[in-house]
Amino acid sequence: MSATTESPRGTKLPSALPQRTHDGARRQYIYLAVGLVVLFFLPFVLPESSQPVLVRTLIYGIMAVGWNLMSGYGGMFSFGHAAFFGVGAYTDAVLLTNFGISPWIAMIIGAVFSAGVGVLIAYLCLRYKLAGSYFALATFAFAQMFLLLAQNLELVNRTEGINIPLLPEDSWAMLQFGQDSFNYYWIPLLLLAAAVAVTIAFVYSRPGRYTQAIRDDPVAAESLGIPIMKYRLITVALSCAITSIAGSYYTQYYLFVGPEQAFSMHVSTDAIVPAVIGGVGTIWGPLIGAAVVGPLSELVAAVVRNPPPFLEFLQGVSGLDVAIYAVLLIVIVVFLPKGIYGTIRERLRK
Amino acid sequence: MNRGVRVTQTSTETKEAPAAPPRLLDNRQLRIAAGLVVVVGAAVALMYLFGGQPSGLLTQSLITGVLLGGVYALVSLGLTLIFGVLGIVNFAQGAMLTMSMYIVFFLATEWGLNLYLAAALTVPVMFGFGWLVQSTVLNRVMGDSTHERPLLVTLGLSLLIINVLLMVFGGRPVSVASPVEGSINVIGALVDVPRLIAFGGALAVAVALTLILRKTTLGLAIRAVAANDVGASLVGVNVKRIYAMTFGVGATCVAVAGGLMVSFTSLVPSAGEQFTTLAFVIVVLGGLGSIPGALVGGLFIGLVQTVGSLYLPGSGSLLLVFGIFLLVLFLRPQGLFGAKS
Amino acid sequence: MVGLTACSGGGASAGAGDTIAIGAVHPLSGGLAGVGGMMNDGAALAVEDINEAGGIEALDGAQLELRDGDSQGSAQTGQSEAQRLISEGAVALVGTYQSDVTENVASAAERADVPMVIDVAVDDKIMEQGYENIFRIQPNASSMGQAGAETLAAMGETAGVDVEKVAYLHIEGAFGTSVSEAFTEEAEAQGIEVVSTVSYPATNFSDATTQVKQALSADPDVVVVTGYYPDNVLVAEAVQALNPDILGVFGIASGAFDDSSFPADAGAAATNVLSANYHYAATSERSQDIRERFEEKYGRPMETAAMLSYQAVEVIAAGLEESGSADPEALRDAIANTSIEDPLLAFDGPIEFDETGENKNATVIVMQSQDGEIEQVFPEEFATAELIFPARDQ
Fold it and tell me: According to its record, how does it sit in the membrane (chain A) (predicted)?
């Protein structure tokens, strides 16, 4: 980790010194390891019926970590991460059902493929200098086109979607277990941990610091000789690959994927909401956001289903659970401008 | 604040008048409009000659497309103001449309009002709603350089509106009968009268909006804020108040749209959702904050979708719409009627 | 770990005075909340009726309990709700209205070996996965297309009208396509030619004039329509406006044409519109009584979908009576062999499931919108009013 040599004005780059960087990253890795160990034992203390919520939370977590790389650290606000999630989900489904390829391999192929698609989309958007809302709308339009394409392509079974056939017994190679198996929780937990590790490595690496410099001041970064396009595309590729893995795992857990499950606008917001609520552009924000958002709608629904006595009149009113969820979402976004983690960190620093 | 392309535009054109909402068609825009008419006209002529479709069907699809375009324009007019002035990607646009349709439904059925009277009463209600949303909630999330917070708030707002409507009115489809029914025949094609009225409404709203922006002090203030909010506040404009008024005016346009569309809509809480996405396409296509742009963009998309469906069945024509949208974003991000940056 | 997880689903064992939980998964919020809520009410009414009549006799009068799950219209949420209900001890599931959600809920039920009775969901593919625990009461898409063609031919014959050419207008996607393809195949066998087939998009569809005109340009005798509620209302309105010289509009598995909201919603355009669909048996006294009580209790008419949810709960209750056990596996076997003699729907015979889990006797009958009411008009044995065909002034 030597200082920049190719840039004569290297001192002006985001000035985390190599030694501090090293320490900072090491501390984050330690946090990650501790968190992983704690979370590993979570299924033993929670009731069995919480497994679907835990898994969904982890999938949100992976998506949000992926989105955060591109939009939080890279400053390219994507409103179309459904495209990359869906590519992962469908790659897995198509390779498995048509060619019997193991989901683990399909996951890697999907990630590479998705990264390629993402780089292509981002290149077009950046090449034509789209930024801000325009960049968001362009990514949104791509995701919508993927949705329409999936609905019309015979290869992916059009609107019918693809079922993953049930296997008679557990199989690690084909990533299928009994419905209640803890493996369904541990696997995405490890995938999420890997995604966070990648984020940490990236954030403290030179490309990561360049990317943040580009986000903060593209003009200055360019004048320093940083190849803007290159570092942005690296960020996009990482982001899309991680999101794609969430998609592949989605297919394996739910055993069914159709156009709506893969590419609808809701998928994109599922990636954005946890990251924004937790804290954009932070390592831990998306995880904290996912931990809040994942169970939130479930908790609200549970309260509405069996309300405390003074709220009994609310029981069975359809739509109430989602309405409450929407209010909570608005309140968090309005009152915690930097997200839960970002706001807390800011308070602590003062 | 960062409003994508518009920022560069206002920062590089400091000496010129604000480019976004205020203009009627000026010469340049007239040229663009004329060019568009020629291109579309030529395409239509080619289709009549070599399109391989019966001419009666083609005529019908053109007329249907224009009328549908009127509906799209109606929904987009409010959005172009909100997006253009506030820079907010308002994902609650469709839900607000549904909301105003339900208010019209309520007034028409519970109070027994005439449909158009009910629509007129909905206008101040929606203005108040828009004003309230902006001044209590959205004003708090504006101003930073990122877009995700306003976007998430409007997404949450959309969920909230839809589900409150569901709680109040239930999810079964309801309908409001129009006092004017039926259709008229124009050169062998059918023109549905309520849709024709909606088309007229779109033109009327466009004219009214242009007049408000050009002739009133509110309009002046809105234009000033759109061009440079910091500058406007320096010369004594209460920017947050203008934001709230702008969102209110945007919601008013939606109220008119809802009033005119309710008679040909099967009303369920999610009825307006499908318009949100297309409205964004239209607003960007026409040029952010451009009123003629929203009109022309609406017509263009309506035509593409309807005529396109003759050749690309099912959702194929929607693919075409998004394809055009991306091309415009890449090649002419300021939109057809936006100022060149 | 295995010990912790293996007991799911089978955990419920009912004895005297116990309650037996049945899980219902429907879209209680989101765009389909109207119909989803109504279906949930239908299932709840069935549970109430069974409990009032003394519960499950074979289990010493054990009472049923309906636990709701809200799919929110999403497959993912539907599946996690199903898993939650199963792990909370539901011995059987009912649901879900949408085909994609049903795919997910069915796979969850199959993996947990808990029987599921599908009330509404039309895709053929759901039952083609080789699942052993899944049963469906309503006819599937292709059998409705086929039965629709047979019925149209028979109806023309009865009315003494020649139906030679039809135009088919259907919603894009698996549902519309499979109904229309099955119809076309059977129609040819019946000597009816499908002269044009036009599909329209499932989203961003707010004016049907062009598509209807396109379908009409082949000069058909009848316009056949398959789709959901709002789009089919648009189609009926466009046909009315274009005022073509046809014998009538004939829906197959249409989400609108036999819905009680349709006549008021479409106004004049609804006049005499025909609809071949699975339908509650308006001629059955039991079904009339249920519908009256439903409307009294919930303040809205009970559509066929809710009747199917009611029926699905009855099928599960019948399974419980026959097996005398709340063990899901025994229940599954009992449902597979059950025979419900007096179905609440206008079917060809008792509800009995074939080896794939489809109801052998599920079929369609023809309704017609007459003077603001939906009447059953064909075949004769289910008729509540006389068939008007040709359905339009020529």
Answer: Multi-pass membrane protein
